[in-house]
Amino acid sequence: MPTVGLCVEPPPLPPETTRAGLRLDKKWPVAAGQLLWLPTKFLDTQDATLKGRVLSHLNAWAAHCGARFAETSGEALVRIARTPGAGHWCYLGTDARFVPAANPTMNLDSFSADWSEAECRRVVRHEGGHALALVHGHQRPPLVYRIDPQKTVAYFAAQFGWPADKTLAAIAPDLAAVGPPPAENSVMTYHIPGECTVDGQPIAGGTDIIPSDAALAALAYPPPTTSAPPPGAPPLYVVFPEGNGIGYYNGGWGVVHRTGQPIRWAVSARGDVAAVFPDAPGTWLWDVTTRQWYMIHPLQVLDLKFAA
Ligand SMILES: [Zn+2]
């Protein structure tokens, strides 16, 4: 059996979330002009190289839209496992909220350092798209109508040993999705060989985020509104000597946040500040580019560490 990493359906959601008639809005809510932070954790590896590789490919989406996958050791909305044999899958957007907290929301089947960069790019970016509520291109009209179910069931049974129901689920029309017509070379579209299509012509399938994928993500999660950063080096951030606030120096002193009590904070290489305040719940980020505070998590105190 050839080794080809295809993305398969995730396990069913718990029954209470899939009652007939319940429709989920799977796009993450995010206030206008704000970043969407998706706290992300790895359930079965603490290998910094592996984690960094996955995060960098997930955050390929961040180059195009206002969504960010940020590693946390606390409560995470994106929980990544590497269970062998379970296939690659990811719950669509906010469906992840209904997954028990100990369970993964994304599986990267047997992900390891052995994966080629091309495979990592294709699979991890594809599953990251699902985490942002993007659906399969090959399941949307008109592409889905080019697929012959009988031929496809026979092909996937012969090639991969898939049962008919698994194949049919992977090519079932998704008529609830909105967006521009699907592109054959979208990162969200499978390669479908000519043996499976009505006209014998293959559907190319995608290997990376293409401009229409990026545009759709940006439509769903607009990049945060930015004001031009000050020219020259990023400002110097300091915690005030009495430990009750954060300020910056950029040719003159400015106050980022001031409290009457000690605060916990960390600063990134480019000057972003993550902080936990005694006078506000949750964890906050001062974005040096937009010069605004963003809520990273409304309740939890997350790790205040930036990657080097
Ligand atoms: Zn998929």
CATH class category label of the largest domain? Alpha Beta
Q: Any low-confidence stretches, pLDDT <50, length ≥5?
A: 15-24, 226-234
Question: Residue share in helices?
Answer: 10-25%
CATH architecture of the largest domain: 3-Layer(aba) Sandwich
Bulk shape: elongated
CA(first)-CA(last) distance: 42 Å
Order of helices and strands: EHEEEEHHHHEEEEEEE
Number of domains: 2
Report the radius of gyration as a whole number of Å.
Answer: 22 Å
CATH topology of the largest domain: Collagenase (Catalytic Domain)
CATH superfamily of the largest domain: Collagenase (Catalytic Domain)
Query: How large a portion of the residues is in β-strands, by DSSP E?
Result: 15-25%
Are any ligands bound, and if so which? zinc ion
Helix/sheet category:
alpha/beta
The largest sheet is:
5 strands, mixed
Plain-language structure description:
About 6% of the residues have low confidence. Helices cover 18% and strands 18% of the residues. The chain has two domains: 185 residues, Collagenase (Catalytic Domain), CATH 3.40.390; 62 residues, no CATH class. A five-stranded mixed sheet has the order 2-1-3-5-4, with helices on one face. A four-stranded antiparallel sheet has the order 9-10-11-12, with no helix packed on it. The chain has a three-stranded antiparallel sheet with strand order 6-7-8, with no helix packed on it. The chain is an alpha/beta fold. The longest helix is centred in the middle third of the chain and has 15 residues. The structure holds zinc ion (ZN). The site of zinc ion has 4 residues, from helix 2.
